[in-house]
Amino acid sequence: MVTIVFAHPWHGSFNKSILDAIASKLDKTNKQYIVLDLNKDKFNPVTTEEDLKLYYKGSSSDPLVNHYQSVLKKSEEVIFIFPIWWGTAPAILRGFLDKVFLVNFSHTYENGWTPLLNINKTVVVTTSQSPSEMFVSSIGDNFIKENLEIVGFQNAVWLNCDNVGFGTDEYRKSFIKNVEEII
């Protein structure tokens, strides 16, 4: 199964157009998928005191966390779609990592750090106003390598549509075609 983690609050955005194109491609190829729309789900990215009390038990006080974990456990591929804001992922997605990637779900500390997830393909699709080169460290190194790969997300590909607000419709359509080819 393919899981799409969508982290953009506005359904009129270019990010939503990317999501729609990916969903259409998966429908055409008869691939089973589910969309985790963090904003639409009203996911609370804030880690509470109660969440921290439960962290080392691998549990959470947020019922969405259990749902998201269940979906990820069944996933062979995960696609993340989000805008780059202030040089990194939006707060709601950072909170998703904080609250969902719990010990004994995504990793364990037994015998050192050990990843527990087995995601065969990972695609990170982002949009930005600034050139992609500015985000190699924050997205390529930090988000992908230090947040995803270390818990078992494999074969990561990052696609960024930079200068998104200044580009033409043809530029954005070309980017979507590139994303569809990767998916």
What does this structure look like?
There is one protein chain. The protein has 183 residues and is of the alpha/beta class. The chain has a single domain (2-182), classed as 3-Layer(aba) Sandwich (Rossmann fold). Helices cover 38% and strands 19% of the residues. The protein has six helices and seven strands, in the order E-H-E-H-H-E-H-E-E-E-H-E-H. It has a five-stranded parallel β-sheet with strand order 2-1-3-6-7, sandwiched between helices. A two-stranded antiparallel sheet has the order 4-5. Helix 1 packs parallel to helix 6 (169-182). It starts with a strand and ends with a helix. The relative contact order is 0.17.
What's the helix and strand layout?
Layout: E1 2-6, H1 14-28, E2 33-37, H2 49-55, H3 63-73, E3 77-83, H4 91-100, E4 107-108, E5 114-115, E6 121-127, H5 136-148, E7 156-161, H6 169-182
Q: Summed up, what is this model?
A:
This protein is of the alpha/beta class. It has a single domain (2-182), classed as Rossmann fold (3-Layer(aba) Sandwich), CATH 3.40.50.360. It contains 6 helices and 7 strands; from the N terminus they run βαβααβαβββαβα.
